[in-house]
Amino acid sequence: MNSKKTGSCLCGKINFEIAGEFDNFFLCHCQYCQKDTGSAHAASLFSTSAKLNWLSGQDNIQTFNLPQTRHVKSFCLTCGSAMPNIQMDGQLLVVPAGSLDDDVSIQPNAHIFVSSKANWDNNLEQLTKIEKFPS
Predict the structure, then answer these.
(1) Contact 109, 25 (CB under 8 A)
(2) Where are the alpha helices (DSSP H) in the chain?
(3) Of the four, 48, 59, 83, 93, which is 20 to 30 A from 132 by CA?
(4) Under a CB-based contact definition with an 8 Å cutoff, are residues 28 and 130 in contact?
């Protein structure tokens, strides 16, 4: 079965479609993902077979390759939202999970680069859960 997922950036200038399945879903705690997300980790989907089709806004995407690393980030030039990119000479599609407009059909496989995990990223599931912005 060949599933399709749609996605977009925060400002709506970029829209895309992914045709195919994801192989892996990793929560990456490396220092680079912390910096480029401003958070504890990146949540990224990986596929060696799915196809990316830009529906609009491809000219509004910037891709940054961190020199001397394998770290790549594509983002909307207007709102800064993380966008999919193709790596490893076209062999790997990387999709930020939060960029999808559809539900993600797989659960994360693992936390990776946990040796770089933020010192405040412990037992977060035990924190109080509030449904909207606290007043």
Answers:
(1) yes
(2) 31-37
(3) 83
(4) no
Q: Is 126 helix (H, G, I), strand (E, B) or coil?
A: helix
55-84 residue pLDDT tens: 999 999 999 999 898 899 999 999 999 999
Q: What is the DSSP letter of 58?
A: G
Q: Which pLDDT belongs to residue 1?
A: 45
CA angle 73/35/26 to nearest 5° reads 65
Reading the block at residue 49, the tokens are 């077979």
State the Rg of the chain over Cα.
15
DSSP letters along 20-31, please?
S--SEEEEE--H
Q: Give the pTM.
A: 0.91
Q: Tens of pLDDT along 92-101? A: 999 999 999 9
